[in-house]
Amino acid sequence: MNLIVGLGNPVPKYENTRHNIGFQAVRKLAEKHNFKARKRDEAMVAEDRIKGYPAAIAQPLTLMNRSGRAVSWLVDEYSAKPRDLLVIHDDLDLEMGRIRLKYGGSSGGHNGIKSIIKALDTPEFNRLRLGIGRPPPGVRASDYVLDKFSSEEKLEVIEPALARAVEAVELWLEEDLDAAMNRFN
Questions:
Q1: What is the pLDDT, as a whole number, of residue 137?
Q2: What percent helix, strand, coil does the chain show, rounded to 5?
Q3: Is 14 annotated as a binding residue?
Q4: Which of 50, 57, 85, 147 is deepest in the core (most CB within 10 A)?
Q5: Does the reported pTM lie above 0.85?
Q6: Confidence band for 152, pLDDT divided at 50, 70 and 90
Q7: Which CATH superfamily, name and number, covers 2-184?
């Protein structure tokens, strides 16, 4: 079973913030493939097939900094191996709207990824990073990630990026990470 996890904060006030772009991506994927989510332990999970491949799409119900607890449970529940897990998250160091796939590596300062690495006791898993850009001068990163995208950013940059992210996930499922990296990185 392939496991696709979007990171975010499950608190209503953080809905549609930059930090929750991972949630937005898995919702787009679920909508496109008519997945219906239900609460399971510490995550909202939807299971079905994407382009013929079995997949579970999940949103942790833990706060971002505790994502590892939910992801660890999901990995155990679905007997997922690192190559079967794809975590989708925001990235301050990528230009807004850019996407990048990678396998392994450090957390890059992302506390959700840091929590997952600690819980799984390995950095070796697939990641799809969605660029949210750096904050403007004088704005703290912690405030910036919890801001919502402007209407213009959402329409012109974020919606197309989410569509590309969905395509990247589909290609990862159909072929592999290298194919998705070659096309989208």
A1: 95
A2: 45, 25, 30
A3: yes
A4: 57
A5: yes
A6: very high
A7: Peptidyl-tRNA hydrolase (3.40.50.1470)
